[in-house]
Amino acid sequence: MTICMELQRINNLWKFLALKNNLPLTVSAEADIKYVIKKGGLELTHCFNQKFLKQSSLKLKEGTFNENQIAHFFNDQKLRFGFDHASFNPPHSRIFFPKDLLQLKTKYDLKVQKDRNGHFEITIQPFSPKNIYDILNATNLISRTLWKKNYFAEGIRN
């Protein structure tokens, strides 16, 4: 598939999700392409390099998250064959978020941050969705685990 077709497919996925959930979609294209959907107090951002789609990330954060007051962080990489697994966490650090999110480590690099007020920001990368279910599964798992509600409606699965 060419890059142009991939960009159109990703664009269609995000427009479909925003339309079916009646949410506003903001698209910006500068050096990176960025899709932003806001729902309640949560903000979902998919950002990627338009020339190299594997340089992409999906970020779900609370709108009141303060990047200047990070109290806890967890950063772990997906296991890759042939590469050393280097963790950025001190060995004595404890996990400060629900352990259900650790299952994302099998497919993505996982970065979890918590500010001093208890607000979260979760980033997974590389995030290159092939279909609507890639977006739904990752986003709803994070949202359901931390905030006890689905970000996207489950009814659009059928």
What report would you give on this structure?
It is a single chain. It is built from two helices and seven strands. The protein is α+β, with helices and mostly antiparallel strands.
Key attributes of the depicted protein:
7 strands, single chain, 158 residues, 2 helices, globular, alpha+beta, seven-stranded antiparallel sheet
Write the layout of secondary structure elements.
Layout: H1 3-20, E1 25-29, E2 32-39, E3 42-49, E4 56-62, E5 70-76, E6 109-115, E7 120-125, H2 132-147
Antiparallel strand pairs: 1-2, 2-3, 3-4, 4-7, 5-6, 6-7
Mean pLDDT: 82
Low-confidence regions: none
DSSP E strands, number:
7
Q: First CA to last CA: what distance?
A: 26 Å
Largest sheet, in brief, is: 7 strands, antiparallel
- The helical percent reads 10-25%
Short description:
With 158 residues, the chain is an alpha+beta fold. The protein contains two helices and seven strands.
